[in-house]
Structure formats: structure tokens, C-alpha cells
Amino acid sequence: MELNLDFIKDNNNIIVKVKGVLDAHFAPQFEKKVSEYIKPLNNHLIIDLSNVSHIASAGFGALMPIKNIQDSKGKKIVLIGLNDNVKKIFNLLGFSNVIKEYKTLEEAKSSL
């Protein structure tokens, strides 16, 4: 399986739709592509994980440099669409204390 990323500009937000598996193999690619895309922009970031079937700790680890980029610009990063398996790992690793997670795009947008 491969990793697909779609970037959508939506007013003051960038939505990244992630599809596939976000594991140790694909995490560096994910981090690099998202970081390169958002660096020159000054938008909030919504990462849609609704089409991610599995995420490993490396996948969540790849979010930290992206979060640091957003923090340096005073912009937020939020996640949406976590399935039960992904949400379990998200909470187990303690990321719920670092990055906010919402069920829907509308909830995420209203939080930004």
C-alpha cells in the first residue's frame, strides 16, 4: 500500500487528506511533503486521517515537526477523522495532550 496526500486550500485553512498507512516506512515522506507545502504559507492546518487504516508511532511522531512549523507561525494544527484504531494509538501515545482531534471538518474549522 502507498501513501497519498491531497492538499486543499480552504479560506484560512489547509486541509491535508491522507490515504493509506502511516507507518515507519511512509512517515518521513509524509513529514517532508506536508512540511514543504506548509512552510511558505500562513494558514491553519487540518489533517484528515479518515482514510488512514493504520498509523504507527512513527506516523504520529512525524506530526511533531509539522506542529513546530505551525507553532512558529502562530497557527494551529488539528486532526479529524480518526478511526477507533488510530484514535486508540493517538491517546495511548499521549498526543491528545499536544494536538486537538475533532470528529468532523466543521468542528475543526469552528475551533480555528
Compact summary:
The protein has 112 residues and is an alpha/beta fold. The protein has helices spanning 27-38, 57-61, 63-72, 84-92, 105-111, and strands spanning 4-10, 13-22, 44-55, 77-80, 100-102.
How do the strands and helices of this protein lay out in sequence?
Elements: E1 4-10, E2 13-22, H1 27-38, E3 44-55, H2 57-61, H3 63-72, E4 77-80, H4 84-92, E5 100-102, H5 105-111
Parallel strand pairs: 2-3, 3-4, 4-5
Antiparallel strand pairs: 1-2
Task: List its traits.
112 residues; Transcription Regulator spoIIAA; alpha/beta; five-stranded mixed β-sheet; 5 strands
Mean of pLDDT: 94
The CATH architecture can be named as 2-Layer Sandwich
Tally of DSSP β-strands: 5
Give unreliable regions as ranges. none
Provide the number of structural domains: 1
Q: End-to-end span in angstroms?
A: 33 Å
Largest sheet: 5 strands, mixed
Percent of residues in β-strands: 25-35%
What's the helical proportion of residues?
25-40%
What is the CATH topology classification name?
Transcription Regulator spoIIAA
The assigned structural class equals alpha/beta
CATH hierarchy class name: Alpha Beta
What's the arrangement of strands in the largest beta sheet?
1-2-3-4-5
Radius of gyration over C-alpha positions, nearest whole angstrom? 13 Å
